[in-house]
Design a protein that fits this description.
single chain; alpha+beta; 9-stranded mixed sheet; 5 helices; 11 strands; globular
C-alpha cells in the first residue's frame, strides 16, 4: 500500500488486474460493488466474475480508510492508431467519503504507474463514459482538449474521429450520436440514488440535464492529455 494521506487513507495499486490472486477476487468485487450500491440503485451486481475487471489490460486502484474500502478506479489500457489510450472503466466513491479528492488521488496513482517512466509517451488519450457531470469535469480537467466540448463551439475533427473510433472499439454494439457522443440506454436499469451535479459548472449540469435526461443514457468522452508523470 502507498500512503496518500498519512494516518488516514491508503492507496492500493493493482496495476495488472489479472495478477490479483483468485482467493482475493471475491473480496475486491464485494468492495467495489458495495461502493456502487451507495451511489446507484441496481438490480444486480455490476462487476462480477462474468463481467470481470481481472484482465491483463486492466488496472485497479482501491482507497482504504480505517479498514474499509472507500473508493475505486478501474482503468483499461489500449492503443488506437498508434496512440496510447487509457479508458476509465469505472470509478466511484463511497457516499460517506465524497468531496475529499479521492478521484485525483486514485488517478495520480494509476497514471504514475502507467506513464511515470522514461520510455512513456509524451501524450496520451483519456476516454470515459458517464452520465455524471462531476466525472465529466474531472476528466476534462486532465485534458487540453476534449469531446464533447461542452460550452465550446469548436471541435477538432481528428479528436471527434478518435472518440467515435474508441466508442466503437469498446462498445461495438452501442450506437453513438455523432454530434453529442451520447449513447442511449447505455446503463440499462441502473439509476443514481441522488442525481449528481457539479455545483461549480452550471453549464455542464445544464447540458447533462437537457441532453441525457434519461437515467440510462450516457455520454462517451475522449480527450488528449500531456504526460505529466514521466521521469525524463
Amino acid at each position: 500500500m502507498i500512503a496518500t494521506q498519512p494516518g488516514a487513507v491508503t492507496s492500493e495499486l493493482l496495476q495488472i488486474a489479472s495478477n490479483v490472486p483468485e482467493q482475493r477476487r471475491d473480496a475486491v468485487l464485494e468492495s467495489i460493488n458495495s461502493i456502487i450500491d451507495t451511489n446507484w440503485l441496481t438490480e444486480e451486481k455490476f462487476w462480477s466474475h462474468e463481467h470481470s475487471p481481472f484482465k491483463p489490460d486492466h488496472g485497479i486502484v482501491l482507497l482504504h480508510h480505517g479498514g474499509e474500502c472507500v473508493a475505486y478506479l478501474i482503468i483499461q489500457r489500449l492503443a488506437v492508431a498508434g496512440t496510447s489510450v487509457i479508458y476509465l472503466s469505472g470509478t466511484a466513491v463511497r457516499d460517506t467519503h465524497r468531496g475529499r479528492g479521492s478521484f485525483k488521488r486514485m488517478f495520480d496513482t494509476a497514471m504514475t504507474a502507467e506513464f511515470g517512466h522514461p520510455a512513456a509517451p509524451a501524450e496520451y488519450c483519456l476516454c470515459w463514459r458517464t452520465r455524471n457531470p462531476v466525472i465529466y469535469v474531472l476528466g476534462r480537467a486532465q485534458c487540453r482538449s476534449v469531446v464533447p466540448a461542452i460550452s465550446d463551439d469548436t471541435h477538432a475533427d481528428d479528436l471527434d474521429d478518435l472518440c467515435l473510433k474508441l466508442a466503437a472499439t469498446l462498445y461495438p454494439r452501442q450506437t453513438v450520436e455523432k454530434t453529442t457522443m451520447v449513447m442511449r440506454r447505455a446503463y440499462g436499469r441502473l439509476r443514481y440514488r441522488d442525481e449528481p451535479t457539479t455545483q461549480t459548472s452550471p453549464d455542464v449540469d445544464r447540458w447533462f440535464a437537457q441532453t441525457i435526461p434519461n437515467s440510462a443514457d450516457a455520454v462517451f468522452c475522449a480527450g488528449l492529455a500531456s504526460n505529466r508523470w514521466s521521469r525524463r
